[in-house]
Amino acid sequence: MWTKLAFFLLLLPTTAVSFTKDCVDPTNGSSLWFNFYETVCPAAEAIIFAGVVRAVSAEPRMAASLLRLHFHDCFVNASSKFEGCDASLLLDDTDRFVGEKTAAPNVNSVRGFDVIDGIKAELEAACPGAVSCADVLAVAARDAVLLLGGPTWQVETGRKDGLMANKSAAESNIPAPTSGLSALTQKFRNVGLTQKDMVVLSGAHTIGKARCATFSSRFGASSSGSSDRRFLDSLQQLCGSGTNDTLAALDLVTPSTFDNQYYVNLLSGDGLLPSDQALMDANAGEVEGLVAAYAADVDAFFRDFGEAMVRMGRLAAPPGRGGEVRRCCRVVNA
Questions:
Q1: What is the assigned CATH class of domain 2-175?
Q2: Which residues take part in binding Ca(2+) 2 (predicted)?
Q3: Most exposed among 41, 68, 97, 232, judged by the fewest C-beta atoms under 10 Å?
Q4: 100 annotated ligand binder
């Protein structure tokens, strides 16, 4: 796998997705900037990239896991105390709070904590106390997408790590795999993201896997044709022969490639999760149009995905809310 990945890296584009000025300039009062570590830890992004390369070369599925970590971390945005991309997801339980790792959307879903721990240890050895765990998540998510053939983009950095975690906020804020279109749209609007952001970020499901328990409700869904029915029957056979923990690829066609096949699948009725196929609901309107556009134009999907990831990465607590650069991502500093 390493040889194949090294060869693939030589073929990767060297230019990032370009952004308009309003996308680049932070507008939420946060202190996020491109090249934040240029002087305090010049090797930061190279260290993170090397760690992601090692992890993905050993297990390609880890790319989707690292992307999911960033997404699930950023969506915990319940109040002024627990907001946004602050690496709260990485905190272990303490006698002060129950962490987010065991929240319903995360248990048996999020993984890759050891990968982040390893990268953070290398960063601490090179630049003690400089690089936040929240920034590691953001940069690692970008690098994971790139390694499976997806776009790259500049990541704004300078986040602080949160001092608390909130299990109940994770359970109420992170979109459920059984969500319908209106619920999905509202979850994204609750954190300041648009319906278009919801559609393009859902395209992350072009990689990764899900447990049967998360999509078993699809088995009884009405089908739009024989192809759709065969797809649902194959899923039911897979899950019927195993347990709720049996895994299926979110994109059965190109499961280890970050591309626009996810949207092609939706047009055929072959979205794995109920929340995926919900984008093609009868009343989807503009959402259905976006799905068709991304299915037809991978470059448009890549461009919009990079821009949406930057916007999601800006979900953060208001200035002055506090935070730190953790020495270990699992615990706050003593």
A1: mainly alpha
A2: 206, 251, 254, 259
A3: 97
A4: yes
State yes or no: is 70 an active-site residue. no
Phi, psi (rounded to 5 degrees) for 316: -155, 165
- Model confidence over 106-150: pLDDT tens digits? 999 999 999 999 999 999 999 999 999 999 999 999 999 999 999
Global pTM reads 0.90
> Residue 38, Cβ neighbours under 10 Å: how many?
12
- Are 224 and 280 spatial neighbours (Cβ–Cβ below 8 Å)? no
- Check if the beta carbon of residue 123 is closer than 8 Å to that of residue 117: no
Q: Say if residue 264 is exposed, middle or buried (CB neighbours under 10 Å; 0-12, 13-18, 19+).
A: buried
Residues 201-256: tens digit of each pLDDT: 999 999 999 999 999 988 876 554 445 788 888 898 899 866 788 999 999 999 99
CATH 1.10.420.10 at 202-301, yes or no: yes
Pick the closest to residue 190 from 202, 180, 201, 198 (CA basis).
Answer: 198
User: Which residue in the list 61, 70, 72, 218 is annotated as catalytic?
Assistant: 72
Does residue 270 have a known ligand-binding role? no
- Given pLDDT bands bounded at 50, 70 and 90, which one contains residue 16? low
The full set of domain ranges for the chain reads 2-175, 202-301
- 115 and 51 in contact (C-beta within 8 Å)? yes
